[in-house]
Amino acid sequence: MTNKPRVGEPVDLMELPLAGSGETRIIGGAKDRWTMLFVYRGRHCPRCKRFLNKLNTALPAWTAQMDVVVVSADTEEKALADASEFGWTFDLCYGLSEQQMRQLGLYVSAPLSEAETTENFAEPGAFGIQPDGTLMLVDISNGPAARPDLDELLDGMIFNITNNRPVRGTA
């Protein structure tokens, strides 16, 4: 990890290609609503799939409050294979570059073998981004076993949004 993301500061603009559509999702910059960005390790990670399956089940509750974008360093082919296999309906992006991983302050891992994957990949992260493009919440892990509880995270985000809570942990 080379950068620590700074809550309360603008998120660097990032263009993320949306799997299967030819469109992109822009992270950072002003929008009309909140965005939750989830970074996952990739197709090779069974823990990621369990986490994202839970997210997909809860997606209506999430999207009622904010935009949800999910991304990995995988190729579009791998991302589409996962989306098809698991029936994911969230915005699934692909091709997160190592530079973008480091911009987000993510831990970056090298594959243990070609059976796992062939390129460096990001360890999990979750980023709550305010409508003005500033970072409100950061949750990053250095491995696949530590993930936020999606119910607790959504409940906390709803509280923050509803009560216009200030960014915490800036000192």
UniProtKB/TrEMBL annotation:
Pfam families: AhpC-TSA (PF00578). InterPro entries: AhpC/TSA, Thioredoxin-like_sf, Thioredoxin_domain. Residues 5-159 form the Thioredoxin domain. This is Peroxiredoxin-like family protein. It comes from Celeribacter arenosi.
